[in-house]
Amino acid sequence: MNRQSLRPAGIVWGMRMVKNRSAWYGLSLLGFLLFVLGGAGCRVVPDKGLTAPANELVLHGLNFGPRIRYGAYPTSILGTPWAGEKLGPHAYYFRLAEKNGIAYTCRAGHVDIMHVRIAADWTAYLVGESYRHIMQGNDSFSYKLLVDRSRNYVHIAYPENWKSLSKDEQSRIAREVALAMGPYLTFTMTTWHEIITWYGFQCIGLPTEYASAFSWEDSYSNLLGTVLATRALQDTEHPYDEAMALVLNEEMKKLGVQPAKVSKQASESVYGAWYKGRVAMFVDLRRRNFDIGLDDGLVTPTLIPNVPGCEGAEPISYPAPTLDALSQYGFSAAVEIRPREWEKNKVLRIVYPDKKGKRIIPTEHFAKIMAQIRREAEAKYGPEMIADPHP
Questions:
Q1: Which of 161, 266, 369, 370 is deepest in the core (most CB within 10 A)?
Q2: Which of 71, 72, 73, 345 is nearest to 199 (CA)?
Q3: How far apart are the C-alpha atoms of 118 and 67, rounded to whole Å?
Q4: Is the pTM here over 0.90, yes or no?
């Protein structure tokens, strides 16, 4: 395996965020060590592209995948950070002033701001990587989250006249193709993480994070990050970090973001029904949202009923990313996942009952896997605990 394929793996901390503050300090130290060890021999300075307008970031790319971040349950438990209307700046690399936590919005329910930021940064990174590989004429590349052992493989098919196009025309087309690929690759990756977490994956040896798999804000928050990053990457006036801060605050206002105290009160109002437990390691989270856009192409949020100030609010859905836009440029792309977690056979058996398959094809297998997970959740918690925006 060449160094290029390993580049993202040694220097990033993946999508599954640690779900409480008590473990954060130890994990930060661990993450720093992994960063140093994995990044040996690589530049560790921010890309010049981050100081240029965000739309140029696609052309510059990024030296490293997204930095260490942690997330939280949308539950009123010990250590949950609550976010409100003021979210501060955004920082692909690092900035203490960045505000994170669980926010409540009238039209999107709970939103994990950390999930949003990480998904956004992964989108920016993978847009840049897609552009770079297309311009180099590569027919495949791979990437992975450090905390996940699975590797994602991307296969690219080019239009027949690709090599006859001028470099400027190739660059223009590659940019549009990459802007479609980045969100899709990110959302597929985060969905896979939720799947393996459902089946007991332990990212760093701590007790299983099963309780966090497809929690009611997860997939929507991840998707929101891809949506916002795509907008930010088209900003011709502001650098990426500034563009992200602008679109994040603008969209959260549109969604009806509430003060931090409302976010906590909303979670407290469903204690005992949607979840139980006051400590992260012992949380019994019952309410789940398995909507990843498989039925109508939209991901719809879970709203908590009777939140003061949100009376009559209707949910805002976002379209799940696809690769459909590639065809207008004569391109096509496909993703396959090579599972390496101990829990992989639990998933593989769902789609390969004869035990002959070793890779997951999201376009073919996610629907079957999600249907099985839903059946398992309904059997365990009852159908009333499954958020169903399309009954």
A1: 266
A2: 345
A3: 8
A4: no
10-residue block means of pLDDT along the chain (391 residues)? 32 38 46 38 52 93 83 89 94 85 98 96 97 98 84 97 98 98 97 94 67 94 98 97 97 98 97 92 92 96 96 97 98 97 93 90 97 96 77 42
Type of residue found at 388 = D
Identify whether the C-beta of residue 269 lies closer than 8 Å to the C-beta of residue 358.
no
- Residue whose tokens read 């409302």: 262
Greatest alpha-carbon pair distance for the chain in Å reads 64
Q: Nearest Cα to 305, choosing from 266, 358, 360?
A: 266
Report the C-alpha gap between 112 and 214 in whole angstroms: 12
Q: What per-residue confidence (pLDDT) applies to 208? A: 61
Q: Which residues contact 144 (CB under 8 A, 6 or more apart)?
A: 8, 9, 14, 150, 151, 152
Q: Are strands 275-276 and 284-285 parallel, antiparallel or unpaired?
A: antiparallel
Cα–Cα dist 30/65, whole Å = 17
| Cα angle 348-14-62, degrees, rounded to a multiple of 5 | 120
Spatial separation of the C-alpha atoms in residues 275 and 286, rounded to whole Å: 5
Please state, in angstroms and rounded to a whole number, the distance separating the CA atoms of residues 337 and 150.
Answer: 7
Alpha-carbon gap, residue 339 to 57, rounded angstroms: 31
Contact 79, 24 (CB under 8 A): no
Gap between the Cα atoms of 285 and 276, Å rounded: 7
For 11-56, the DSSP string reads: G---S---SSGGGHHHHHHHHHHHHHHHTTTS--S--GGGGS-HHH
Domains of the chain, residue spans:
3-387
Between CA 99 and CA 222 the distance in angstroms is: 17
